[in-house]
Design a protein that fits this description.
It is a single chain. This protein has 2 helices and 11 strands, in the order ααβββββββββββ. With about 220 residues, it is an alpha+beta fold. It has 2 domains: about 80 residues; about 140 residues, Jelly Rolls (Sandwich). The strands form 3 sheets. The protein has a 5-stranded antiparallel beta sheet with strand order 3-1-11-5-8, with no helix packed on it. Strands 4-9-6-7 form a 4-stranded antiparallel beta sheet, with no helix packed on it. Strand 6 and strand 7 form a beta hairpin. The longest helix is centred in the N-terminal third of the chain and has 59 residues. About 20% of the residues are buried.
């Protein structure tokens, strides 16, 4: 019996000291038994509360662990997300100016929807290693002094260079590709570097069914 129980029983027996000994003794024993039962219940409840607290703490830890696992799963899924695009120019681009963005408005492939046929800009959706490729064509030209130079830009930084110069009695065709490390949010596009004279960047020609000028890119490996 705890100290509280002993004191309570002693007090109860003292108060009832005028009661005959055998009656008082029975009363004290009954009270002690009742107190003992209450104390046992209290002890049991304390253990139950302690158990519940432990279980609650474990649940919180498990919940935090589950949230971390879900976040990790989302990151893994994002890294496995396929990214690829392929687009062409549907019309000829005549005498483009220096600094102009070449817009490939006809989209054939856009897995991940990272390329915009409106702006001509590809926005990197997942950090990783990418490949970009550009093919340009220009028809025969009467201006022998014409020239067009182009750059593939990543956030304004040159990552590839192409040029179409001085073709007169024949078509000219050029291409370039680049493998770069890209960070989510980076922008990639084709820009006119310098241009002079009279010139045409060939788009898709009706009746020919040929894709003369196009851009493509894809995610090689996510970080």
């Amino acid at each position: 019996m705890t100290l509280v129980g002993v004191v309570f029983v002693s007090y109860f027996c003292l108060v009832n000291s005028q009661t005959p000994f055998n009656v008082a003794s029975d009363c004290c024993e009954e009270t002690a038994e009742n107190l003992q039962t209450v104390l046992q219940r209290l002890t049991s409840l304390e253990k139950a509360v302690t158990t519940l607290k432990t279980e609650n703490s474990n649940l919180r830890q498990n919940s935090s662990g589950l949230a971390a696992m879900q976040q990790e799963l989302m990151e893994i899924k994002s890294k496995q997300q396929p990214v690829a695009f392929f687009a062409e120019m549907s019309q000829d681009l005549t005498n483009p100016s220096t600094g102009q963005t070449v817009v490939f408005d006809q989209v054939l492939t856009n897995v991940g929807n990272a390329y915009s046929p409106t702006t001509g800009i590809f926005t990197i959706p997942v950090t990783g290693t990418y490949n970009f490729n550009v093919v340009l064509s220009s028809p025969n030209n009467n201006d022998a002094n014409h020239y067009m130079h182009f750059f593939i830009l990543q956030n304004g930084r040159k990552i590839a260079y192409l040029f179409l110069d001085h073709n007169t009695d024949y078509w000219i065709h050029t291409s370039s590709s680049s493998v770069v490390q890209g960070t989510k949010g980076d922008r990639v596009w084709l820009s006119v570097g310098v241009a002079g004279g009279s010139h045409v960047l060939a788009g898709h020609r009706l009746g020919e069914g040929e894709i003369h000028t196009h851009i493509s890119g894809f995610l090689i490996q996510a970080d």
